[in-house]
Amino acid sequence: MASAEAWAYSKMNKYPKAILDLIDCYQALPGVGKKTAERYALYTFFHMKEESIIDFSNALLSLNKDIHICPNCGNICEDQVCSICSDPERDHSQILVVETVKDLYTLEKVNEFKGIYHVLNGAISFSKGISIDDLNIDSLVEKVKNGEVKEIILATNATLEGETTARYIKELLGEYDIKITRIAHGLPVGGDLSYADEMTVLKAFEGRRDY
Amino acid sequence: MASAEAWAYSKMNKYPKAILDLIDCYQALPGVGKKTAERYALYTFFHMKEESIIDFSNALLSLNKDIHICPNCGNICEDQVCSICSDPERDHSQILVVETVKDLYTLEKVNEFKGIYHVLNGAISFSKGISIDDLNIDSLVEKVKNGEVKEIILATNATLEGETTARYIKELLGEYDIKITRIAHGLPVGGDLSYADEMTVLKAFEGRRDY
């Protein structure tokens, strides 16, 4: 029966190879299943212009060629060192520690922080098997040891993994004479108290300030 | 103020150009917004292997090079004519009319139909401004005129657009001596009557058969 099924499958008309290949590629993206990948691939063929497909192809190759990771902070960049680390107007004594590059750019959009960043590239997670050795922490300790740093701002997420990582870094750097702070967690601006989850309400309550 | 904002924006640190380009490309896909596109682009850089990115890039270029539309039925193919139209074992007197190539492959998966297809490439839609002239219908009429066809099976969707299109084709081909059928609409297999929408229940009732 199994071989009869395999035979039937082999006789079945399938998409042309180029489409099947593209479906596989799209399916490698996070949260994209077979059906969505199929939809993306057919859309690419039927609705994108030939030049747009060439641009798309070049943008992908450009990742391999032009983008690398800043050896100083873990950000992505096109030059030797990223544009933030190489900016002389930024305060190199203040380091904001984030889990991902995406977090870095989310903070940059606010246009408030004028120090530099340090991207951990993840957070300690027992369930995902990510230990401290998998994170970009050594170079952070090195910078602190060299005495360049006055303040470390921990901006890891308010999740079990993010909190564990923040706590670990605090203990790791506890012996040095630097200020270690954590970004505030609480109710989002414009949020409704009655819709907030319990942990957020708890954090908002614990973090209350004089008014 | 506007120019001050523009200045602040120009000073803001943004992703490297290759990442921004790739975000734009992903954002062109259906249902993909800015945040998802950003997630896809960063995932591509951080989690896909260099070779996978090259494969992805080649798969895209291959669409332009290797894939074209079957002049006979509107299916996508790598050869002159698609593998279904060129299959001598298939019954060329029975034509199943579908809206999209995706519908065609959905039907092929069932491995039941042994005739050939005709892909309309859409359906008549007043709201989207798609008229009969935008659809691949002329070559279907041509085939019927040539007297090769015995049965046309209309498998357009059970939507306003699909029904309008089916009705139009029925009238267009009414004068020829062929059988025109419509695929059955009703309750899905394994579906629960109480969860079905009213239109589906109505179709299931109208389409009842002797038992």
> How would you characterize the largest beta sheet of chain A?
4 strands, parallel
Shape of chain A: extended
| Quaternary | homodimer
SS field, number of helical segments of chain A? 8
Structural class of chain A: alpha/beta
Query: End-to-end span of chain A in angstroms?
Result: 75 Å
Q: Descriptors for this entry?
A:
homodimer; alpha/beta; two-stranded antiparallel sheet; 12% strand
Structure commentary:
2 copies of one chain form a homodimer. The first copy, chain A, is α/β, with parallel strands linked by helices and 211 residues long. Helices cover 44% and strands 12% of the residues of chain A. Chain A has 8 helices and 6 strands, in the order H-H-H-H-E-E-E-H-E-H-E-H-E-H. In chain A, the strands form 2 sheets. In chain A, strands 4-3-5-6 form a 4-stranded parallel sheet. A two-stranded antiparallel ribbon of chain A has the order 1-2. In chain A, helix 2 (17-27) crosses helix 3 (34-47). The interface between A and B is large, with 57 and 56 residues.
Brief write-up:
Two copies of one chain form a homodimer. With 211 residues, chain A is an alpha/beta fold. Chain A is 44% helix and 12% strand.
Topology diagram in text:
Two copies of one chain form a homodimer.
Chain A: H1 2-11, H2 17-27, H3 34-47, H4 50-66, E1 68-69, E2 76-77, E3 91-98, H5 101-110, E4 115-119, H6 138-145, E5 151-154, H7 160-172, E6 179-182, H8 198-206
Parallel strand pairs in A: 3-4, 3-5, 5-6
Antiparallel strand pairs in A: 1-2
